[in-house]
Amino acid sequence: MPGLSERLRAAAAKIWQAQHEHPFVLGIGDGTLGEERFRCWLRQDYVFLVEYARLLALAAARSPDLATMTRFADLGYETLHEEMDLHRAYAAEFGITPDELAGEVPSPTTRGYTDFLLRSAAVGDFADLLAALLPCMWGFNEIGLSLAGRAAPARSAYARWIAMYSSAEFTALVEWLRDLTDRIGEGLPPSAEARLREIFLASSRYELAFWEMAWRRETWPR
Fold first, then answer.
1. What is the pLDDT of residue 56?
2. CA 69, CA 91: separation in Å to the nearest integer?
3. Residue 24 contacts residue 37 (beta carbons within 8 Å)
4. What is the pLDDT of residue 46?
5. Which residues are catalytic?
6. Tens digit of pLDDT for each residue in 181-220?
7. Which residues are CB-neighbours of 16 under 8 A, at least 6 positions away?
8. Spatial contact of 5 and 131, defined as CB atoms under 8 Å apart
9. Number of neighbours of residue 59 by Cβ within 10 angstroms
10. pTM listed for this prediction
11. Which of 44, 146, 155, 220 could form a disulfide bond with 31, CB atoms 3.0-4.6 angstroms apart?
12. 175 to 5, 147, 169, 171: CA distances (angstroms)
């Protein structure tokens, strides 16, 4: 029988396929994505990373053992001290300053997604947290690996984006998170798995909505 992560992925298959087919993702893959759309994604993803670091801190606090706690604590540190620095440098290539990133207002989709993630972590149990977190890491890795199997885009910034999310290091991180989810999922009653499936589906829908948000350069109604 497939593990819990694979069962959750199968339940969200149509949503994930829609991500692969989204014009934003395809535009990164072939290098045709307009810069304004990518700038929107960069700005909003920075906002997302701040809340993502909070999620990792909650994951460390709620971890069932020391090894898992250490891994999540390390991930939180790397996000705050390495990934966000890389993101600022990457954004600078597109003319976005650190002050602009720091002052970015979360879009409706970004606000909804991050609030959902943090609520799942704070109100649910550790399995709920994993089900909410997994579509982000795994989805980016799956998209990165898929795009890496095609001809590299001429735009170097997009080629580096693909290389980052298809890297062996990031793939190993996703495999660790999937293994952790599978271990936590062993012996869960059907009612608990059904709850996790709904959480996983919601996060998957938010991942798809995030691409659409950047594609449309979503703003709040005025």
1. 97
2. 31
3. yes
4. 97
5. 136, 207
6. 999 999 899 999 999 999 999 999 999 999 999 999 999 9
7. 9, 139, 142, 204
8. no
9. 24
10. 0.96
11. 155
12. 10, 19, 10, 6
3-state secondary structure the chain: CCCHHHHHHHHCHHHHHHHHCCHHHHHHHHCCCCHHHHHHHHHHHHHHHHHHHHHHHHHHHHCCCHHHHHHHHHHHHHHHHHHHHHHHHHHHCCCCCHHHHHCCCCCHHHHHHHHHHHHHHHHCCHHHHHHHHHHHHHHHHHHHHHHHCCCCCCCHHHHHHHHHHCCHHHHHHHHHHHHHHHHHHCCCCHHHHHHHHHHHHHHHHHHHHHHHHHHHCCCCCC
Q: 221, 217, 209, 219: which is closest to 39 by C-alpha?
A: 217
Both tokens assigned to 198? 């709904």
Angle at 51 between CA 57 and CA 188, to 5 degrees: 60
- Residue 95 is encoded by which pair of tokens? 């003319």
What is the rounded distance in angstroms from the CA atom of residue 114 to the CA atom of residue 55?
Answer: 9
Give tens-digit pLDDT for 64-83: 999 999 999 999 999 999 99
Q: State the Cα–Cα distance between residues 143 and 10, nearest whole angstrom.
A: 16
